[in-house]
Amino acid sequence: VQVFIVRHGQTRENALRIIQGHLNTNLNEEGIRQAKLCGKVLSKISFDTIWSSDLNRCIQTRDNALQPHIERLPESRIHTTELLRERGFGEVEGYDYQTVVRTLRQRKLTWESVGESTQAFQKRLLKAWDEVF
Q: Where are the catalytic residues (predicted)?
């Protein structure tokens, strides 16, 4: 079994250094370009199944990068799941990184205290892994 993991392309929020986590953001023009470039690299690989997060930026990356594969695979072999979302950052999602870091330091908080714990994140990803295999 070979597994390829691809991160989503750039979003407006990435460019502005905004914490996204579970925010449902879209790719910007650069992100679409990146996804298509990724697709060129992956073009000679034959995929049996495709999984992605259910967030727009991930679906858009998948669709732009893997369009020829998606067209040949039956719909039953293309999956989206919330289990593959990036780590949730709770109340700080939607705020710029520098502001969040400054606020966490001032309030003596950690990333885990405002969002998904490392343990919960790992548990969710392992559940996704079990679902895939």
A: 8, 86
